[in-house]
TrEMBL record:
Primary localization: cytoplasm
Cofactor: a divalent metal cation
Taxonomic lineage from the root: Bacteria, Bacillati, Actinomycetota, Actinomycetes, Streptosporangiales
Organism (species): Actinocorallia longicatena
Residues binding NAD(+), per UniProt: 74-75, 79, 148-149, 159, 178, 189-194
Protein name in the entry: NAD kinase
Protein EC: 2.7.1.23
Length: 299
């Protein structure tokens, strides 16, 4: 009886020379271990490795793969999530960018990461995603999703966006603002964080609503139930708005339309090498000062 072959998909930010070098190193280590490697067709020429399967940039590229190794920054991992979420293949990010909050390993960890994949020494966790739709006159005109956030932003630089926020079918407040961010816990360290929202631990089930530069007495960031439905209505007298999801997918939101956000039934799966506390990740990624900490007093 023959052993079942193993397959790994490699996705890389091939516009960076370091990502291409990293991809070649990882491919070599995986192939030496007898693991079949795939890359995307539009990245194959830059990676230029013989014997590697090239697949169209479609969800089928990840079908049958046990993991997708993503070499780049958070933007590259979000692109990978867009491609693979439907087939459920876990993503293992290697940070070659700046902060890289979604990544599990750094450039210096490449060889160790590849060896851990070879030995199957990793775990998989699920991250909450959100479903997003645009409604106009009751009809859905656009439907999409996000791992980090959906942001409703003003389309005109000269004027504020006029919106009414709604939670579970009840109006909450009118805001004149630059936009509103509806984020997941994973996205709490992204756009929502820049807008003054709270950092939420990934295992917390919740949605964030963060008004951006709002001219209103009540415009605090909100943390709502994961079972809630959040809606942002663009008032009829307002200029139009633009919906952005993870900074990648966009849709127009004309005056009088609304954006509805709710928890998705389909999460994004991330491969984890190091089950370190999220607190440690915050300290490392943001370079937080912890000098003077003595730890728990032990008796």
């Amino acid at each position: 009886m023959t052993e079942k072959s193993r397959t790994v998909l490699i996705m890389a930010h091939t516009g960076r020379e370091g990502a291409v070098r990293s991809a070649k190193l990882v491919i070599r280590r995986l192939e030496e271990a007898g693991i079949q490697v795939r890359v995307l067709e539009d990245e194959a020429a830059d990676i230029d490795c013989e014997g590697v399967e090239a697949h169209p940039a479609k969800p089928s590229a990840a079908e049958g793969a046990e993991v997708v190794i993503v070499l780049g920054g958070d933007g590259t991992l979000l692109r990978a999530a867009e491609l693979t979420r439907g087939v459920g293949t876990p993503l293992l990010g290697v940070n070659l960018g700046h902060v890289g909050f979604l990544a599990e390993a750094e450039r210096a960890d490449l060889a160790v990461m590849a060896d851990r994949v070879v030995s199957g020494d990793y775990e998989v966790e699920e991250r909450m995603a959100i479903d997003v739709c645009v409604r106009r006159n009751g009809d859905i005109t656009d439907r999409t999703w996000a791992l980090n956030e959906a942001s409703v932003e003003k389309a005109s630089r000269e004027r504020m966006l006029q919106v009414v926020a709604e939670i579970d079918g009840r109006p909450l407040s009118h805001w004149g603002c630059d936009g509103v961010v509806c984020a997941t816990p994973t996205g709490s360290t992204a756009y929502a964080f820049s807008g003054g929202g709270p950092v939420v631990w990934p295992e917390v089930e919740a949605m964030l609503v963060v008004p951006i530069s709002a001219h209103a007495l009540f415009a605090r960031p909100l943390v709502v139930s994961p079972h809630s439905t959040v809606a942002i209505e663009v008032t009829a007298e307002s200029e139009g708005a633009v919906l952005w999801c993870d900074g990648r997918r966009t849709a127009d939101v004309p005056p009088g339309a609304r954006v509805e956000v709710r928890r998705s039934d389909l999460p994004v799966r991330l491969a984890r090498l190091n089950l370190t506390p999220f607190t440690d990740r915050l300290v490392t990624k943001f370079g937080l000062p912890v000098a003077g900490w003595r730890g728990r007093v032990r008796t």
